[in-house]
């Protein structure tokens, strides 16, 4: 499973990119706003930090506006993936932009039927939002299982990019469900390394080494 980091904070991205743990980056208008920096500038900087796909979202909601913005975003760098909302205009724009060779991430997916439409429109990635479904007491992970089955039934190439990941358990469940990619905030990715027995074991090894005067 590929790991994308869901942030527009370039310091966090540089840090994780150096660890070799991330395969790409996703942003959204809320994350760009949080960075407090100009949109194009921050996307260009992120694209230079990773060779992987970098999702940059349009803010237009009509077909013509999405195409105009999508083409502009695609010119920033060759690894820009244009992020479009799961609406009829968004799907139409998806068809056009992927036809021009631009990678497209169709976002704000909350149902298997929406994911089916995105695959039919040629989306490179579909982004089902797990946490936001959990927030309204639905089973976000069930959606990943459903999409996996549908895409496998018809051999769709669209990659399932599990988004709105809030916990380490979400990451594990996505891997078990066969998501192609998961995107999570830096803190969630870093938390995956934690285990109290690792800390305890290391403490014992170091104490024994010190006692025995072991030097490497
Ligand atoms: O980028 C989309 C997504 O991952 C949002 O996550 O936590 O705001 O629901 P969240």
Task: Describe the fold and architecture.
This protein has 216 residues and is α/β, with parallel strands linked by helices. It has a single domain, classed as TIM Barrel (Alpha-Beta Barrel). Helices cover 53% and strands 17% of the residues. It contains eleven helices and eight strands. An eight-stranded parallel β-barrel has the order 1-2-3-4-5-6-7-8, surrounded by six helices. The chain is globular and about 70 Å long. Bound molecules: SN-glycerol-3-phosphate (G3P).
Distance between the termini: 35 Å
CATH class: Alpha Beta
State the oligomer.
Answer: single chain
Order of helices and strands: EHEHHEHEHEHEHHEHEHH
Strands across the major sheet, in which order?
1-2-3-4-5-6-7-8
Q: What is the strand content?
A: 15-25%
Outline the low-pLDDT stretches: none
The name CATH uses for the topology is TIM Barrel
What's the tally of helices? 11
Measured as a percent range, the helix fraction is: 40-55%
Shape: globular
**Associated small molecules:** SN-glycerol-3-phosphate
- CATH level-four homologous superfamily name: Aldolase class I
Task: List how many beta strands DSSP finds.
Answer: 8
CATH architectural category: Alpha-Beta Barrel
Please specify the SSE layout and strand pairing:
Blueprint: E1 2-6, H1 10-19, E2 24-26, H2 29-35, H3 39-49, E3 54-57, H4 63-74, E4 80-85, H5 88-99, E5 103-109, H6 112-120, E6 125-128, H7 130-135, H8 140-154, E7 159-162, H9 168-177, E8 181-184, H10 186-191, H11 196-212
Parallel strand pairs: 1-2, 1-8, 2-3, 3-4, 4-5, 5-6, 6-7, 7-8
Helix pairs in contact: 1-3, 4-5, 6-8, 8-9
The structure holds SN-glycerol-3-phosphate (G3P).
Residues 6, 26, 28, 129, 131-132, 163-164, 166, 183 line the site of SN-glycerol-3-phosphate (G3P).
């Amino acid at each position: 499973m590929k790991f994308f980091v869901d942030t527009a904070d370039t310091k966090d991205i540089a840090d994780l990119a150096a660890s070799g743990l991330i395969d790409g980056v996703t942003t959204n208008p809320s994350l760009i706003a949080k960075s407090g920096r100009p949109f194009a500038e921050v996307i260009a900087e992120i694209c230079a930090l990773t060779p992987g796909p970098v999702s940059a979202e349009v803010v237009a909601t009509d077909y013509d506006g999405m195409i105009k913005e999508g083409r502009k975003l695609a010119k920033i760098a060759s690894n820009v993936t244009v992020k479009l909302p799961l609406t009829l205009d968004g799907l139409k724009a998806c068809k056009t932009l992927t036809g021009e060779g631009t990678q497209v991430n169709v976002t704000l997916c909350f149902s298997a039927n929406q994911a089916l439409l995105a695959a039919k429109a040629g989306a490179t990635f579909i982004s089902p939002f797990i946490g936001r479904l959990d927030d309204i007491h639905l089973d976000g992970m069930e959606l990943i299982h459903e999409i996996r089955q549908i895409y496998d039934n018809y051999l769709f190439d669209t990659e399932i990019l599990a988004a709105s990941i809030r916990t380490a358990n979400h990451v594990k469940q996505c891997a078990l469900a066969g998501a192609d990619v998961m995107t999570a905030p830096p803190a969630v990715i870093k938390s995956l390394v934690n285990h109290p027995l690792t800390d305890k074991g290391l403490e014992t090894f170091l104490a024994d080494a010190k006692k025995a005067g072991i030097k490497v």
